Structure prediction request, 458 residues.
Amino acid sequence: MDYLPVFFRIEQQPCLVVGGGHIAKRKVSLLLKAKAKVTVIALDVLPELQDVVLKSGGEVIIAGYHASYLNGKRLVIAATDDDILNRQVFADSEVLNIPVNVVDSPELCRFIFPSIIDRSPVVIAISSSGQSPVLARMLRTRLESMIPAAYGQLAEFVGKFRKQIQATLPDTSVRRAFWEKELQGRFAELVYNGRLDEAETHLQHALIANQPPSGEVYLVGAGPGDPDLLTFRALRLMQQADVVVYDRLVSQPILDLCRRDADMVYVGKARADHAVPQEDINHLLVRLAKEGKRVCRLKGGDPFIFGRGGEEIEELAEAGIPFQVVPGITAASGCSAYAGIPLTHRDYAQSVRFVTGHLKDGTPNLPWSELIHERQTLVLYMGLVGLAEICQQLIAHGMRPDMPVALVSHGTTPKQKVLIGEIQNIAEKVANSGIKAPTLTIIGDVVKLQDKLAWFGG
Prediction:
């Protein structure tokens, strides 16, 4: 993160704009929206700029810039076409520790102006850290259509009751649950339609009838790593959970999408290295839910495909804990697609089979004879450590030694690597490559298409 997102309160605070042209005019209009007290200094100032500044109670100085004009200022903007002057304004502001922005020069900015969606008092800012203002504006345009103008009215109306609700519901989690319910229900609809008296009556009744929140568990599939592969439902539940219980296969970009103030609990498990035993995870989910918390159990891939999600909800059901299950894109689908390997293809494979590379006792004790089919794709989860033995067993039970194999490491992420070989030599190639888990192994003639169809990381 190149810039820390903050919102300045500059109402009636002295701000200086150096420059009197159209760019300066745009920046002044933003400052005046925030009710700043603006001083403009330039040798030549647009008449319309001078007019708007003076009408706001600000000051226009027709003169050359001097560092003394910075005295007492809270914010400085350099908006001239003179690079030397802009750099001087930046240098002088730095000496006085005044936040400064030099327009179109990110390297000379201590703050930058984002693209803004104004639903006052709700304000949404979007920034590309100065790298692509056009992209930021495009994102703003997309969000504008998704955020009704009435959101501002809703926020302003809610603000009138904030202290009352805070006094009545002092517990933060209880209060948050109350507002989340009301802001997605009839109260919000009444405000949107301008029926403010009814909205206030509804809110007072809801406050009297409010019950402590009941706990719930969301068993959410986070997909194979790329946050763009999350479902809308997964994202919604991730952002309303009080606690997120996650494993090692959940990527950091996905964790960053969880609610910022949620408690994050790591329970990752690797081969022979269980941070938290599965039984303890099951008990943890039950305990947190019984405390009235909304718990997001975030699991890589799909929770019901080698994710032990079934074991977790068994215990939840026995304890009478409400739960939801949100499927995720399993690693087989995500990694094969990003590697350019279709799992089925009319010319190569009419079926696909998912198996795990190690069972409960840690050994690859698989039904080998059932896995040997010429026109079947075999997908191995968690098979990196036992890959050499798996390959030997497959050959011993009749798989042809030149059967194509692809090993996908860190699939769907920027670190994705794809290693292609044959069943007779893939283990040796892996040993020489330095590839590390998490990996997925795809065995079958569909791997032959990887050269032609690869589009990501291949």
Q: What stands out?
A: The chain has four domains: 14-113, 150-209, 216-329, 332-453. The longest strand covers residues 37-42. The mean pLDDT is 91. The chain has 18 helices and 19 strands.
